Amino acid sequence: QFGNIKHTDTIFKAASYVKEHYNEKITLDQIANYVYLSKSYLSKIFKEEMNCTLTGYINKVRIDKSKMLLRYENLSIVEIANLVGFDDQSYFTKVFRNIVGISPGKYREKHRRV
Model's pTM, two decimal places? Predict the structure, then answer.
């Protein structure tokens, strides 16, 4: 996935930070400090190389983790939202629907694994 990227190390390090801290409140400041770049430069190269914003990437990682929890865990939507880093269940549902195309509840109904 990172093969054709000019800033491979920086993008990989930023993406790894997101994957390790997705369940926490993540700020652009934190990621920029972690990779030793300014917020504006990091945002620019991340968008150029990954074809999405850092916020979009963070949300995608969080939604991917929530999909797994929805399939395999018997937790409420609120609990899952909190576990993947969303403070607000309605915002989680909105982001989930935008990325996946259906609500978390409908996703659980269609993809439930016991």
Answer: 0.90
